[in-house]
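Hypothesis: this fold can be encoded by more than one sequence.
Test: take the structure tokens below, design a sequence, compare later.
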């Protein structure tokens, strides 16, 4: 196989695990994120050569320049995984921090758009490709204090539907994966490096692992050409809704 996957947010969590899993089934990986040293470490986890691209998805010019720098032999992108994103803060709307709001909208929504805009032309040229956006259960259900993070993931949901409508005639698949609680660096980022608080989010039940999402993505991209798993909600067995988790304490 000589397929190529372009993964945003490959320095950690879901993006990292998916890079490893797709490489195992033969994909060549373009791995992106801001932390160059993590991309170097990822290379050690993967047998074949990966192409690291270091950029901040908020920086439109950096996104354009990075993708424009792709050598011809890396431009035939089969899968775009729009995964880069995080929650920043967890506060009632009246106490929200504008910088947190801006980060979530700039990364989770605008960053996804900037990257997609640069990759879609490669897919249009070949009238083929598969875009998978990582949404969230938080893009289906709003929870208390989740306000802007939830809004950013509702936006991902709307954009996924819009992209599917607009790219359908070009033969490009567009899918969305909406995970529940996955134990990654997500909560550490949300709580600004407070590891202890982050750990409490996943205590008393078995959360999903990044590898569970990676497995699902491998399954999605290996379906026959006529099958698109358009939208999947994936929860830990202990989780029934965004806020209902069976904890055994
Ligand atoms: P992690 O914090 O482990 O990973 C986030 C990734 O996003 C990192 O690789 C990070 O790379 C990248 N990223 C963040 N900001 C930027 C930026 N400005 N520019 C470029 N890359 C950026 O969290 P997850 O793996 O859990 O999160 C991945 C996706 O999954 C996110 O979209 C998240 O919203 C979603 N999700 C997570 C769930 C969970 O419970 N964990 C549940 C549902 C959805 P770097 O810092 O190196 O730039
Ligand atoms: C991440 C899941 O419930 O922590 O999108 O918001 S949650």
């Amino acid at each position: 196989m000589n397929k190529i996957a372009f993964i945003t947010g490959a320095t950690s969590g879901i993006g990292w695990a998916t890079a490893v899993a797709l490489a195992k089934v033969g994909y060549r990986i373009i791995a992106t994120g801001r932390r160059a040293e993590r991309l170097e470490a990822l290379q050690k986890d993967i047998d074949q050569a990966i192409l690291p691209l270091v950029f901040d998805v908020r920086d439109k010019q950096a996104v354009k320049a990075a993708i424009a720098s792709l050598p011809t032999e890396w431009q035939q992108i089969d899968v775009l995984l729009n995964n880069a994103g995080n929650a920043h803060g967890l506060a009632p709307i009246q106490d929200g921090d504008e910088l947190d709001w801006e980060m979530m909208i700039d990364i989770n929504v605008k960053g996804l758009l900037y990257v997609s805009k640069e990759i879609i032309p490669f897919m249009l040229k070949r009238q083929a490709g598969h875009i998978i956006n990582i949404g969230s259960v938080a893009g289906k259900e709003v929870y208390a204090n989740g306000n802007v993070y939830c809004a950013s993931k509702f936006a991902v949901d709307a954009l996924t539907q819009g992209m599917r409508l607009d790219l359908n005639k070009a033969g490009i698949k567009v899918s969305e994966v909406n995970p529940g609680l996955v134990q990654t660096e997500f909560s550490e980022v949300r709580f600004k490096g407070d590891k202890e608080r982050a750990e409490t989010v996943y205590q008393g039940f078995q959360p999903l692992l990044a590898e569970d999402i990676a497995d699902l993505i491998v399954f999605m991209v290996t379906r026959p050409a006529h099958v698109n798993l358009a939208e999947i909600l994936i929860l830990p067995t202990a989780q029934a809704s965004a806020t209902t988790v069976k904890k055994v304490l």
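The pocket of 2-hydroxyethylsulfonic acid (ligand 2) is lined by residues 136-138, 146, 181, 242 (CB under 6 Å). The mean pLDDT is 98.
Hypothesis status: open.
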